[in-house]
Design a protein that fits this description.
single chain; about 170 residues; alpha+beta; 3-stranded antiparallel beta sheet; two-stranded antiparallel ribbon; 6 helices; about 10% strand
């Protein structure tokens, strides 16, 4: 469970890091499923960035009876998100980013809620949860977050390449 300090950091910064939420063995199981025939390969697509470079991901909305569904419904995720939002939660979608370090395309600057609003989420009561299956470093293009930017309100989004990008 998150600490009071972590919850306060989320309120202030818009994100919180939870190291080792899953064991190395659990991460290994998830990683092994990325290339096997199944949910990820079935839902995989390409969303080129502004420079036309390939940015691959798999995206789905249902909670399946597989290892990815187990993560989605894990009390380690669900209960912590309930703490952050201070209300009950539901699953919007899951995705696996198939980023290829140094050669794959970029994910354009965006605000998740900025385009979720266009999908029918009228209030910014959503949390993105990222579980790194590979090391996420500056050298291989890790996620960048602007602390406190969630307090700036919703940004309009348009198309940048084949992705949604913040104006």
């Amino acid at each position: 469970m998150l600490t009071l300090e972590q919850t306060q950091a989320f309120d202030r910064d818009g994100f919180v890091m939870v190291p080792d939420a899953f064991t190395p063995q659990e991460i290994g199981i998830l990683l092994s499923q990325v290339t096997k025939e199944g949910r990820v390969t079935k839902h995989q697509g390409n969303m080129p960035d502004a420079n036309g470079r390939s940015s691959k991901l798999a995206l789905w909305s249902d909670v399946g009876d597989d290892v990815f569904g187990a993560v989605t419904t894990s009390p380690r995720i669900v209960n912590n998100v309930r703490m952050l939002l201070r209300e009950d939660v539901y699953h919007w979608h899951s995705k696996v980013m198939l980023k290829e370090a140094r050669v794959g395309g970029a994910w354009e600057w965006h605000q998740d809620y900025g385009y979720w609003y266009g999908d029918g989420c009228l209030y910014p009561r959503l949390v993105s949860c990222m579980v790194a299956l590979d090391p996420a470093t500056k050298e291989n293009g890790c996620l960048k977050v602007i602390p406190g930017s969630h307090l700036l309100g919703r940004f309009d989004h348009g198309r940048v390449g084949q992705q949604a990008g913040a104006d």
